[in-house]
Write a structure and sequence with these properties.
The two termini are 59 Å apart. Strands 29-37-36-31-32 form a 5-stranded mixed β-sheet, with no helix packed on it. The chain has a 4-stranded antiparallel β-sheet with strand order 1-2-3-4, with no helix packed on it. With 705 residues, it is α+β, with helices and mostly antiparallel strands.
Length: 705
């Protein structure tokens, strides 16, 4: 079962490290911390995750002041403080007052947004600690209904007792401090109360009466309040969810107040399926809301007036908690059954309007992109299908556009087969640590969406094709610059330009990494063209010497030109070899004595051609794994790799020496190649022309600039 992404998360949280970590508690399986993405490997494995506490896992949060530390909780409010750096935990549960504390199976917990050392924990009271759980004080009265008829948990179990804290009732489920105004704290209980303090706990007000009382209450009295979300924009605004499914009432309940709970408005619309569990307000655009229900994830672009279900790469399953990462704009979703999903960079949803949806082409804002140094070190060499591999975050500049495509013509792959093909490609990409979006682009063909990247001087550094699907499309630029090969008058020039362009892993166009700076992306589709500028920034984890980067960039460009020259020479020699073979085959089929006599000249040219090709790529003496390091092609590629792969570090002395030596060797080899074509091939051409036949093209000399 290790290869199935199954997990029942109650809560979700994040920190601000790079990469950032995700925190959450699992039913029956403790509390866990793991990376949202990794930079040292190509994929996310199970061993990247740390178990920081046992029991049933519930709310968890990082310590904002100390990376690697935070809070976890097991059933019944058993709060603890963990330190991944030392592998230790300490208990942080409040001591009982004169009245025994009633903690819910899934007790309410929060870290104060204004004071990072202050935390809150809910029993029937709100407990506050100003020193990370070492000492506590109670800042509220009993905020529940305190109904004694519903507090017989000590008698639970039937024939045998079963008092495991799951039976606790009249308890606090949610504690939600306002991120806008210090001292404003919302509290929800499992027996239907929404309580509010505006002075840090000195006074409290029951603000849910208007919802749960009267002749026709909007919510049945006693429905649980599992989630409250105070607004990022207004201290008087909060979103509240009620859940009554444990009494076989599966009606969704979602309300908003803009006046501290004096009045409420329902945000439930017919599009919502399943009772509600979690609500999240986008921290940048107040009308962008995310809702979790028993049957999936819903999004509203207009403050809850309408909702649509998010189905792109997301299953129909219970959504228990939602968070938006403030730096990376990722939507992090905790599900009960399908573990954790991260939807990368939801910022385009902030721009989406009815006007944009009517456009044929729209390019959303391109966020600044970081040139992370990434590695491929792993505890697994080849995990196979027996281990679950989490999809890693695509790296590069994220380019998102909206498109209403014209009618497609001549699709290479039937539309009915495309989803299956894309899924197979995605599975391969996940296991090989590759960029899934790049893999998908490989099967899209050339396409009609043209994407051009330009530097600050307007010079084209990269051209790509984007997907042509209706709706929101996304591609990633990997910061690679592919310098166009100059046009050539030589025969087969177009083919040579295509085949000699430097290739990256798995056939993707490679090239060198661009320098940090301002770049512009232009997207053209038929008669439409849009553009956006953005910043490419160096890896924020490292101290960068820009002068070293500039030097490496110029040397890498020179090295790539060297590689193209040797590839072009190889291509010429291969074409000449094929031409000579064709001449021989043609001569055998003809009864032309003069042509047969010219075959002696062909043999002499073939001999010299063989010497050149053997210098470039020696033929192994016998079958098996041969040493190819003596070949000039291998030496050039190795030297170019040493120079162009320096990254942020200065080019090493061995790499410089190897490059300078191979440059001399290549120059000498090109002189031989040029001499071969200017003399031997030219003479053979004359001989063949005299008998009325030639297949050998002439070539301009090759030289290192």
């Amino acid at each position: 079962m290790e290869n199935l992404p199954l997990g029942q998360f109650y809560h979700i949280n994040y920190d601000l490290q790079i990469p950032y970590n995700v925190y959450g508690g699992l039913q029956d399986n403790g509390t866990w911390v793991g990376p949202a993405y990794v930079l040292t490997e190509g994929a996310i494995y199970q061993y990247h995750w740390k178990n920081v506490g046992g029991g049933d896992g519930f709310d968890a949060a990082p310590d904002p002041e100390k990376p690697g530390c935070g809070y976890g909780m097991s059933q019944g409010g058993n709060l603890y403080y963990f330190d991944i750096n030392t592998g230790t935990t300490r208990a942080a549960v409040p001591t009982e007052s004169e009245v025994k504390h009633r903690f819910n199976w899934n007790a309410g917990f929060a870290v104060d947004p204004f004071h990072p050392s202050t935390i809150y924990l809910g029993s029937q009271f709100v407990h506050r600690s100003r020193d990370k759980g070492r000492t506590w004080e109670i800042i509220s009265p009993d905020l529940t209904t305190n109904d004694p008829e519903k507090q017989r948990q000590s008698e639970s179990g039937g024939l045998t007792l079963d008092v495991s804290n799951a039976e606790n009732y009249c308890t606090i489920l949610s504690i939600a401090p306002s991120p806008v105004k210090e001292g404003v704290i919302w509290v929800g209980t499992d027996d239907g109360n929404v309580q509010l303090t505006r002075d840090g706990g000195k006074t409290w007000e029951l603000v849910s009466r208007a919802l749960t009382t009267g002749k026709k209450p909007l919510v049945p009295a006693g429905a649980a309040v599992p989630h409250i979300k105070p607004s990022h924009f207004d201290e008087a605004t909060a979103y509240v969810i009620f859940d009554d499914h444990m009494r076989s009432n599966f009606t969704p309940y979602l309300f908003v107040t803009h006046d501290y709970g004096k009045t409420w408005k329902s945000l439930v619309t017919p599009e919502i399926e399943g009772y509600c569990r979690a609500i999240e307000e986008d921290p940048v655009k107040k009308d962008l809301l995310f809702l979790g229900t028993e049957f999936g994830l819903y999004v509203s672009l207009n403050g809850g007036q309408n909702w649509f279900k998010w189905t792109n790469g997301f299953p129909t399953c219970p959504v228990y908690d939602i968070a938006v990462h403030p730096r990376e704009n990722d939507l992090v979703v905790a599900t009960h059954g399908r573990s954790i999903y991260i939807i990368d960079d939801i910022s385009p949803l902030r721009e989406l309007t009815d006007e944009i949806l009517k456009k044929k082409l729209h390019l959303f804002k391109v966020n600044d992109a970081f040139q992370f140094i990434t590695g491929r070190m792993s505890s697994y060499m080849s995990p196979g299908d027996g281990v679950f591999v989490g999809e890693n975050k695509p790296f590069g500049a994220c380019i998102t556009y909206y498109l209403i495509p014209s009618e497609k013509k001549g699709e290479e792959t039937p539309a009915s087969e495309m989803p299956q093909l894309q899924e197979r490609m995605a599975q391969f990409a996940r296991r090989s640590g590759m960029d899934i979006s790049a893999m998908r682009q490989m099967i899209m063909g050339r396409g009609r969406v043209s994407i051009t990247i330009l530097d600050s001087q307007g010079r084209v550094v990269r051209q790509m094709n984007g997907p042509e699907e209706k709706g929101i499309n996304r591609v990633y630029w990997d910061f690679r610059e592919v310098e166009p090969t100059p046009n050539s008058d030589e025969p087969g020039g177009a083919q040579i330009r295509q085949q000699t362009a430097p290739l990256g892993f798995f056939g993707r166009r490679g090239g060198i990494t661009v320098l940090p700076g301002t770049y512009t992306v232009k997207i053209k589709y038929e008669d439409q063209e849009v553009s956006q500028s953005f910043e490419v920034k160096p890896d924020p984890r490292l101290k960068i010497d820009l002068e070293v980067l500039k030097t490496n960039y110029e040397r890498a460009k020179e090295a790539q030109r060297l590689l193209r020259i040797v590839q072009m020479a190889s291509q010429r020699l291969q074409q000449t070899e094929r031409a000579l073979q064709t001449i021989r085959e043609f001569a055998r089929s003809q009864r032309n004595q003069k042509l047969m006599e010219s075959m002696k000249n062909v043999s002499e040219v073939e001999k010299k051609l063989k010497e050149l090709t053997e210098t470039l790529n020696p033929t192994p003496p016998r079958q098996g794994m041969a040493d190819r390091s003596s070949g000039l092609m291998f030496q050039v590629m190795s030297a170019v790799s040493g120079v162009s792969g320096a990254g942020y570090e200065p080019i090493t002395q061995p790499a410089k020496v190897k490059y300078d030596r191979v440059k001399v060797k290549l120059s000498e080899f090109l002189n031989r190649v040029n001499d071969f074509y200017q003399k031997d091939v030219a003479e053979l051409n004359k001989t063949l022309q005299q008998v009325g036949f030639t297949l050998l093209p002439g070539y301009p000399p090759l030289k290192i600039e």
